[in-house]
Amino acid sequence: MDDSRLKRSFLALGLVLGLVGSGTSCTILTTRPVQDMSDTAAAIRAAREVQAEVLSPEYYRQANEWFAKARREYKFRNFHEAKEYSSKARRYAEQAEFEAIRANGTRADPFIENPPPTDGADATSSDGSFATPTPVPAESFTDPFANPPGSQAPSGATAPSGPTKIEVPAP
Length: 171
Known about the structure:
The chain is an all-alpha fold.
């Protein structure tokens, strides 16, 4: 009788470990989809460069939504799902880029993230050189903490120059 009871215990333990192991084995056996995530981020950047958010908004929105799902699954270490979502996002981003180019979207210069203003309000002079700032002497600045407004120190009074000892009478 003890032998069959022992077998059932091992069987139950094996079943429990099998169920627990199958839930976590995907994370253990699946590698991190780092390259897939990087490729998807590059595809979304490329779609943004051709103004896909304006010229192909549906594909661009889908790409961003699937990529957000992929990042969330990656964060929770569900790498298989992250890879699936990332590949869907990359396909949507590539389709958005293609549609935007078909709609005459022009590729912005990838090396200039914020182009300088062209209305002459920038710091360059007419010959293209940068303007030299004028120096301001340090004496012109006042220390706002020296005498705060409303707290004038009495004449002849000086601040203590170190820790002061406060004597408390014994009760």
